[in-house]
Amino acid sequence: MAHSSEASWFSTHLGTWPLGPQGTSINPHDPAPGLSGEEFLELASHSVRVQAPMVRRGWRSGDNGAGRGADSFEPISWAEATRLVADELQRVAGEHGNDAIYAGSYGWGSAGRFHHAQSQIKRMLNLFGGFSCSEHSYSYGAGAVMLPHVLGAPFGDTNACAPGWDQVAAHTDVMLALGGFRPGNTRCDAGGVFAHTARSWLEKACRRGMTLIVVSPDAADAPAWPNVTHIPLRPTTDTALMLGLIGELEALGQGQHDFLSRYCTGHEALARHVLGEDDGTVRNAAWAAEITGMSPARIEALARQLAEARRPLIAMSWSLQRARFGEQPCWAAVSLAAWLGHIGAPGGGVAFGLGSVNSVGQPVRPLKAPGVSQGINPVSSCIPVAGLGDMLASAGQPYRVNGDLRRWPRVRLIYWAGGNPFHHHQDLNRLRDLWKRPDTVIVHEPVWSATAQQADIVLPVTLPQERSDISGSSNDRTLVYSPAGREPQGQALTDHAICARITAAIGQEEVFRDGRSEGDWLAYLYAGYQARFPELPSFEGFTAKGAVTLDEAASAPVVQTPLAAFVDDPVACPLSTPSGRIELYSATIAAMGLEECGGHPAWQPPEEWLGSPLAARYPFHLLSPQPLHRLHSQLDKVGASARHKQHGREVAVMARADGIALGLIDGQCIKLFNDRGACLAGLALSDTLMPGVIVLPTGAWFSPSDTLLAPNGTPLERAGNPNVLTADRPTSELARGCAANSCLVAVTAATAEEQADVP
Ligand SMILES: Nc1nc2c(c(=O)[nH]1)N[C@H]1C(S)=C(S)[C@@H](COP(=O)(O)OP(=O)(O)OC[C@H]3O[C@@H](n4cnc5c(=O)[nH]c(N)nc54)[C@H](O)[C@@H]3O)O[C@H]1N2
Ligand SMILES: Nc1nc2c(c(=O)[nH]1)N[C@H]1C(S)=C(S)[C@@H](COP(=O)(O)OP(=O)(O)OC[C@H]3O[C@@H](n4cnc5c(=O)[nH]c(N)nc54)[C@H](O)[C@@H]3O)O[C@H]1N2
Ligand SMILES: [Mo]
């Protein structure tokens, strides 16, 4: 840490300003502080904390899950709780095999390196013989499967697929940002954010004269600076726009065919598709305009602007691929960038996820070191993470993903720590029914989240300020020490201590702890960083300072130009694709014979978008982006999140013109519904959002009414949780990613009776 004022600030404040969720800033010099640590303090003693180990009464009397979510709980001792958990794990593993234990346990709980709930429970469960796991993320599950086919295996990691922000600031002259820069999204990062710099980098690029063109349904995704323009488009139609732009480049004679033939394979097939030689439909500005709602002239002008740019960058936010056929925009973005010919040049080509979180594109040495070892999982069964509902619905049935034929495991026990599937999964009414199928659900939680309420055994966990930890994003320069500042609430224990007690029941506690106290573990993990970064101070020096920042001067400068080595010498440095080149046509994917994903990028209409027949009944496209004032469902009940509710509910945003047409006014309580469910929300009328779209951020705690029903007969959700409306459909059989953004709804005013039912 360079400044002594910072060091003293840390030593005086860290005890009471600990790490919060993964965006909390404790750095007084942060250019754009994130969520506040103060709110975490408010949560610490809030009535939503779980005070003691709890067991559901119906589970005890053997109801096999029938009363799950509707039943009462009773407190039990830690000794009894850990015995019940260990016995049940052994029973299920013994009777049904370890693959009947599902512990994918996806989620963003805890920023710390040691108290990382998923690592702790997986380390424990491996000592019980293993479990069925999950792969990829809700964040960019479609991209993580598609991009390796197109660019090679390393490009499944979103960070590999974006130029450094310093290169954007220095070289990019036109950035086409699909999805743009939602204010607040760069507040967060896995591992925490010490300095929120993504926005300042963007500003630096624009000040230097970069033209930023944001294409998205909401002008609020574009910063209000000079040389920034916003073009609205219908949600989930970006693939059509990009194919239409390629068509216009061809018509202008501006396609970079030298680049295509030197570095790509399959561009001929894609060119034939765009020119309509395969099916008679020409993909040009006029075609794309029909689908996207943009004007043909605007698309033509955009094609010319990109063709004339010295260093254009096609940037795409993760949100685009969190939709049906979400694999396609990823492929189309690489294709458009290849047609423009600047891939591999500083600040040019394609970027995936710049602005979705703070870490993507940070020009720093990755601050990576080994975490808590999870051991070895002898069970091979692994599901695509957003396949949770299908796994429960189709136990034992075969399915296809990324060309593999797999079988959904027959799950009898679900174990979750550090995530909230009743926040993050789609079609929560369906999930609620399916969730009753397993024999047992065990959850570790600091608070009575919706998932804890849907469990059989709930084990209370500390919040970050009740334990000491090390934190830091792997794409940041700073490691932070966060000492415990208060006693654990009630009987809460750390995930580590809970798992240690459970492994004690099978005589494995010493193996689990590896002979270390929690304090020893922190020193041990820190030593892993020191081994990679010898300039770091001693552990004692680190904890005394509170934070240490890597000295970038001590290393060679970080230059992050994706694909530069390949473009320099494609023969010596081929990509790890089958052809060694950028695959704009993939024989591998084509050979899978999938209906929903062919051999080259293509636009196909999904079931739900503004152009589908269903829009006659459900005329609004629902987008459910990330919430500004919290991290997903965390901190929903406190601070700014609680203050920004209306009628105790999340606020939906709709174009002013739509509100007027429906006779709705600002601040009114509304109801959103479709064939899957309904929820209530507040209403804000917007002058930036395009008509026909309604935005309801994620994260309001799932609160089904006891008495009131949705038009489809499911319980009315009262807090404004969009996931009672979203469809539980995979992106496609290729990736089976989360497709939350493909969702149509209708909107009406709530009735007086509905309004009176406050969560
Ligand atoms: N409709 C819609 N749905 C979406 C999305 C969308 O765009 N639209 N986005 C998706 C995406 S990208 C994501 S990443 C997911 C996020 O989904 P999640 O990551 O599941 O959401 P969180 O609310 O962060 O859940 C973290 C949980 O961990 C708990 N927790 C915190 N600290 C600890 C700890 O130390 N130990 C334990 N055991 N628990 C802890 C918190 O109380 C909280 O309940 O949501 C997905 N869902
Ligand atoms: N404050 C805060 N920040 C967060 C999080 C949080 O919970 N709170 N969560 C973090 C996580 S886990 C993730 S994965 C990232 C997610 O980062 P993203 O996936 O990039 O973000 P979203 O919030 O889903 O959507 C961003 C914008 O995309 C636009 N958009 C939506 N659909 C389309 C489309 O089809 N086409 C185009 N062109 N634009 C579209 C919307 O207008 C929206 O404002 O955010 C991270 N940042
Ligand atoms: Mo995410």
From TrEMBL:
InterPro entries: Asp_de-COase-like_dom_sf (IPR009010), MoPterin_dinucl-bd_dom (IPR006657), Mopterin_OxRdtase (IPR006656), Prok_Mopterin_Oxidored (IPR050612)
Domain Molybdopterin dinucleotide-binding: start-end pairs: 620-743
A GO cellular component annotation in the UniProt record: outer membrane-bounded periplasmic space
GO MF assignments: electron transfer activity; molybdenum ion binding; molybdopterin cofactor binding; oxidoreductase activity
A Pfam family per the record: Molydop_binding
Region span, Disordered: 468-489
GO biological-process terms attached to the record: anaerobic respiration
Molybdopterin oxidoreductase domain span: 49-502
Essential cofactor(s): Mo-bis(molybdopterin guanine dinucleotide)
Alphabetized UniProt keyword annotations: Metal-binding, Molybdenum, Oxidoreductase
Family: Belongs to the prokaryotic molybdopterin-containing oxidoreductase family.
Name recorded for this polypeptide: Molybdopterin-dependent oxidoreductase
Organism encoding this protein: Larsenimonas rhizosphaerae
